[in-house]
Amino acid sequence: MDISVVAAAREDDSPVDEPLRVAVVADRLGYGEVWVGEGATWDSFVLATAIGGATERVALTAGPVPVSVRDPLTIVRGAASVAAVTGRPVGVALGTSSKRVVEGVHGRPRTRPAAALAESAEAVRRLMHGEPGEAIVPGSVFRRRQRPPGGAVTVAAFGDRAIATAAEHSDRMLLDVVSPEQVRELRGKLTAAAERAGRTPPRLAAWLPAAVDPEPESLTQVLRSIVGYLTVPGYSDVFADAGYGEAVELAASGADPDTLLAALPPEAATTVGLVGDVATVRARVDAYAAAGLDEIALVPATAGDRGGERTLSALLDVRGQRG
């Protein structure tokens, strides 16, 4: 089991510069890779460049970036630019994002998201491996001047069409806040899709909220990060089966996030994350590994744990025992 760290995940009310602190802690502790997600606050490539300047060795993955608002060349050019400035390998992660983000924030239509993801992944994979001197795109008079970014192509997937895209075009498929049971099911779908595509299945990673010996505010932060999933098909059943049917029903009725947060007990944080003492978290890591996960990307709670220092330090031995 590989363990990486997510410096910037979904939007919350943590300090704007908290991702830099998380990345610095991860680098100092010896984690090998930091993910730099994109949202309404940070541009992934700018933040990744800042992280590269503030750290010594950690590899970088920018994204997931929404394919409906960034074209393939823009994505790869961004990664190559970060790699050139930082001297680190830089990968990219692609996703469809949500209508709330694509249309509500960017003002762009989120049409044919599965098709857009497939088209972008195919193009990005090709562009990631171009060499200096080649046409920047076929038929263009402009030539490549940057070296390839050197990192992996990751596709965030959950639905069947996105999984097929990941199987065909990615080095790694990414899941977000999933239970071990979901990992087992999605691993099976990924393996089957890769067989149909005639490829070795890509590695399977998941962003998982993490809080070791959490403070109350840490638990609240984790719970806030999952309330939005209570209405998502495939997730709502997981929470209902775990005993949180009342919260699922409230979400279906259109309840606001604060109401949903109040309906979720602290124990709900363990359904799709790594929360508890070290022994509990270690057992949970084992459960994810047994379900078929290759990599856990820790999304450390930082409320009550500046930079995620306590959680990332506590999980070093887990990382060491599992590769």
User: Which percent bin holds the helix content?
Assistant: 40-55%
Specify the CATH architecture: Alpha-Beta Barrel
Tally of domains: 1
Radius of gyration: 19 Å
Could you name the CATH topology?
Answer: TIM Barrel
Spans with pLDDT under 50 lasting ≥5 residues?
Answer: none
What is the tally of helical segments?
14
Q: Structural class, judged by helices and strands?
A: alpha/beta
Compute the average pLDDT.
93
Strand content: 15-25%
Largest sheet: 8 strands, parallel, barrel
The rounded distance between the terminal residues' Cα atoms is: 6 Å
List keywords for this structure.
TIM Barrel, 8-stranded parallel barrel, 323 residues, single chain, alpha/beta
What does this 3D model show about the protein?
Keywords: Oxidoreductase. Residues 11-294 form the Luciferase-like domain. It is an enzyme of class 1 (oxidoreductase). One of its GO terms (molecular function) is oxidoreductase activity, acting on paired donors, with incorporation or reduction of molecular oxygen. The chain has one domain: Luciferase-like domain (TIM Barrel, Alpha-Beta Barrel). The model has no long low-confidence stretch (mean pLDDT 93). The chain has helices at residues 18-29, 44-54, 72-86, 99-102, 113-127, 160-169, 180-197, 216-226, 236-241, 245-252, 257-263, 278-291, 309-314, 316-322, and strands at residues 2-8, 33-36, 59-66, 90-95, 150-156, 172-176, 203-212, 274-276, 295-300. An 8-stranded parallel β-barrel has the order 1-2-3-4-5-6-7-9, surrounded by 8 helices. The chain is an alpha/beta fold. Helix 1 links the parallel strand 1 (2-8) and strand 2. The protein is globular, with a radius of gyration of 19 Å. The chain has 14 helices and 9 strands.
